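User: Hey, my collaborator sent me this sequence without any context and asked if I could get a structure. I don't really work with proteins. Can you help?
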Amino acid sequence: MARRIWIAAAALGLAAGSAQAQGPAAGVAVTGLGGQKLELSAADIAALPHQPVTLQLEGGKSEACEGVALSVVLAKVGAPQGKALRGPEMADVVEVAAADGYHVALALAETDPLMRGDKVFLADRCNGAPMAAPEGPFRLIVLGDGRPARSARQVMSISVLRLPGG
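Assistant: No problem. I've predicted the 3D structure and written it out in structure-token form, which is a compact way to encode the shape of the chain:
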């Protein structure tokens, strides 16, 4: 029994090691409420309208970054925005998954420019250059948070989900 557990653990370690060797994905998978799926490459994201944004780091440090408003990314999979964001859509959430297993959840309304202005970004450049490992190639930046816990690095996927009962 112990041998089987060790073999399974070793196999999982090899699988995890190969995933880490490949590094983060070169694109971001985006899924909408109706199951619409879209893979945005680094070039696709670079072609979207960017805004300067300051990433606040722990210890009072900051970085000058550039990113795309998350609402622009979510619009590509038909996420409700503006006046269409009401009623049951107010319970929708956005889940962001990172290569290291980190997950962040935001209310869809937090990403809407009419509700909060552009306060959530998908950054692909910091300090004048494309983001490299271990931060990039993409990082979620949530402005206004007291600490950067929701500013997930190595973003791989973004999904819009409906909460039960919504």
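In plain terms: Confidence is low (pLDDT under 50) at residues 1-24. You can pass these tokens on to your collaborator as they are.
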